[in-house]
Amino acid sequence: QSVLTQPPSVSAAPGQKVTISCSGSSSNIGNNYVSWYQQLPGTAPKLLIYENNKRPSGIPDRFSGSKSGTSATLGITGLQTGDEADYYCGTWDSSLSVGVFGGGTKLTVL
Amino acid sequence: EVQLVESGGGLVQPGGSLRLSCAASGFTFSDHYMDWVRQAPGKGLEWVGRTRNKANSYTTEYAASVKGRFTISRDDSKNSLYLQMNSLKTEDTAVYYCARSSGGGTNDYWGQGTLVTVSS
């Protein structure tokens, strides 16, 4: 049971937009930055979004992040088949003094 | 170019021990907090633990699932991170990743992972 809650799966057609939610509490998302990671099959996770809504160099602006209260959202526009992957949110939990991840969301581009 | 390369994984019996290493290059290792994150087969990411930098007294934090059994250490002179795993259980079977922690607590670079299998 993950501390952060994500939907197990989402799907959309190529070219469409999808959002992935991440729900937590005041001790984690509510008071810390949220990051998002993309994990393509058989590879290590890759940072997509940091500090709630910033993109590392090389990440296209099709990927966006936002945070409100104790929830965060990853948005992906202009979906491509290459976006099919597992997506994870992550942050720090200040009460537990541990890192926490969501359970992951599998994106299918139909 | 930032690189993190894990090694030391393998097959170990329940109750046994294993030491993982992570060789870092391409950045000032001593400045950064470093994390271990694992992923059991077919499962999601699980944060294992963190070592802070010298400025923060190399303090460590651990997930409840490994506290008392796993120990994270680092050698800044060798740009290396370690994970000593004792009293291993079958549920510790996973790919173990080392990851650099940047400002804001994000893991901005990850290694390729090393597989640890705990089985008799």
Automatic annotation (TrEMBL), chain A:
Quaternary data: Immunoglobulins are composed of two identical heavy chains and two identical light chains; disulfide-linked.
Keyword Iron-sulfur: no
Gene Ontology cellular-component annotations: extracellular region; immunoglobulin complex; plasma membrane
PROSITE patterns per UniProt: IG_LIKE (PS50835)
Source taxon at top rank: Eukaryota
SMART domains found in the cross-reference section: IG, IGv
Segments forming domain Ig-like: 1-89
Entry annotated with the keyword Cell membrane: yes
Main location: membrane
Name by which UniProt lists this protein: IGL c3552_light_IGLV1-51_IGLJ2
Protein's cellular compartments: Cell membrane; Secreted
Biological process according to GO: adaptive immune response
Species whose genome carries this gene: Homo sapiens (Human)
Family annotation (SUPFAM superfamilies): Immunoglobulin
Keyword list, A-Z: Adaptive immunity, Cell membrane, Disulfide bond, Immunity, Immunoglobulin, Immunoglobulin domain, Membrane, Secreted
